């Protein structure tokens, strides 16, 4: 049985653990097709670097998944994590109506988690989330393996301006 006093390792999902490149086109059109973007999340490929980081961290940390995905994707997300061999962990989603920027939403959750026990590291692809977490004193590992230069601006806009992922 794992030691429940282990520090948290907090991992983002989209573009950190999952490859969003096959569905990002739904956000590059006007209007953005959020329903299709999220409906296809269960088809994402695994980012090998993300799986390796999650597996390594699980040896000495309690894993927490902190995603900007809406709560309505819980079932598909849990199944995706299990089917792809990710370590067990708590999963925190954005409420279905939460449109705060990801940096605000995630920092709020990090503060709540750190009240329970130390947060050893946050692994996230979003530069604004990483900067806010570092400014608040958290150790951050920037997941720069998940997006190419063409798709990054689209996902970051969705995360920060529209509070959707």
Automatic annotation (TrEMBL):
SUPFAM superfamilies: HAD-like (SSF56784). Residues 10-143 form the Polynucleotide kinase PNKP phosphatase domain. It comes from the Bacteria. This is Polynucleotide kinase PNKP phosphatase domain-containing protein.
């Amino acid at each position: 049985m794992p030691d429940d006093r282990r520090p948290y390792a907090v991992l983002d999902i989209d573009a950190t653990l999952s490859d969003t490149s096959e569905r990002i086109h739904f956000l590059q059109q006007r209007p953005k097709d959020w329903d299709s973007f999220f409906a296809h999340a269960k088809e994402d490929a695994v980012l090998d670097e993300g799986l390796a980081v999650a597996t390594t961290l699980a040896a000495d940390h309690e894993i927490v998944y902190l995603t900007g995905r809406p709560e309505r994707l819980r079932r598909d997300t849990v199944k995706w994590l299990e089917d792809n061999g990710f370590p067990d962990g708590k999963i925190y989603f954005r409420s279905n109506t939460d449109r705060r920027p990801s940096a605000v939403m995630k920092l709020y959750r990090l503060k709540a988690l750190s009240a329970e026990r130390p947060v050893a590291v946050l692994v996230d692809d979003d530069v604004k989330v990483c900067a806010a977490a570092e400014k608040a004193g958290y150790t951050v590992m920037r997941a720069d393996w998940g997006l190419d230069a063409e798709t990054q601006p689209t996902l970051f806009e969705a995360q920060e301006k529209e509070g959707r992922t």
